[in-house]
Predict the structure.
Amino acid sequence: MLLRASGEHAGIEHDVDGITSTAGAGHSVRDADLLLPFAEAVVRGSAAELWAARERLMAELGAAALMDTAATAAIFNAVVKVADATGIPIEAYKVDQTATARAALGIDTFGQASRPAGPIGQRPPT
Amino acid sequence: MTALAPDYADAPLPVRADLATEHARVWRSLAAPGTWLDGSQRVAVAAETRIAPACPTCKAAADALAPLPSGTLHAVTNDVLPPLWIEVIHRVRNDASRLTDRWYSSLLGRGMDPGEYIEIVSVLAHVVAVDTFTDALGWPRHALPKPLTGEPSRTLPPGAKPGLGRVPTVAPEDVSQGEADLYEGLSGANIHRALSLVPAEVWSFFALDAVMYLPDRQLRDFEHEFRAIDHAQIELVAARVSALNECYY
């Protein structure tokens, strides 16, 4: 996880619970209270929620930050579809490095998590 | 407000020049013949990608314990594409986290070509990226381009092999001369390999990724910041969006 790596560089242990729940809100990351509601509204918010999150982010961080946050959210809303459609597995070294965090965050319960690695026909069907 | 030009010349707020240039490039490439799809098919896939979220069949499935069975007819379509392609677009657009190997195998059994599948997924992903950007900003979406004439090349990379995901991929060590720069500027991580059965789509998607997210070489350059939000902020947003999509990768 690059969030953890960036924190290690800065000497901060970032809260990762904000990734799967707004309750923890990732407060160790600056402006997480603006970024997380915006990201959530982009993916599944109503028009009103998105408008409110966008206006707040724009007012507090400015247009350039709004652009870059929107761009990041947008490309990840697309790259997840590439990953899921192709069934591409997480790299073995990342599985080991992130095992604890994935279990704690519930990521192991996501649909594709049960997909074994390897070509179709050489492993149990999912 | 009418549709924005893909170069954002008339946008209400300034858009980074590289972002605007890249979105304009993506829109031009949508209209052009690809490797397996011609220009009209690519634009039709883009149009269906936009229609799919309103599909009542998909909406009902989203609340169900199990995903839609293979071969389900979708209620809202533009009726231009084959039902099999529409099924792919709707399932990937609306329920990607519950796609299975069995479903993909059923597509092959019903006549889907793996190269076509990858190009459909890639066109969809490009459109989702650009549309999500304008949606996030509350701006109108770009009008889809007019298709260009020409035939797809229908070529497969010789180094493609099964063994990583559902679809054959090209490992960095198997890249051949024809696509020697397939992973140029990329680490060759699994996600970079995902679309590699159609090398042109790897180049295109990760060129877009580099300007909307970060180029690979900047991902771990924590000494410098390259955007108006810092590395940690970028990664928090990226991780949250991935989690909301229930993406394991």
In short: The mean pLDDT of chain A is 80. The CA atoms of residues 38 and 53 of chain A lie 5 Å apart. Residues 63-86 of chain A form the longest helix (24 residues).
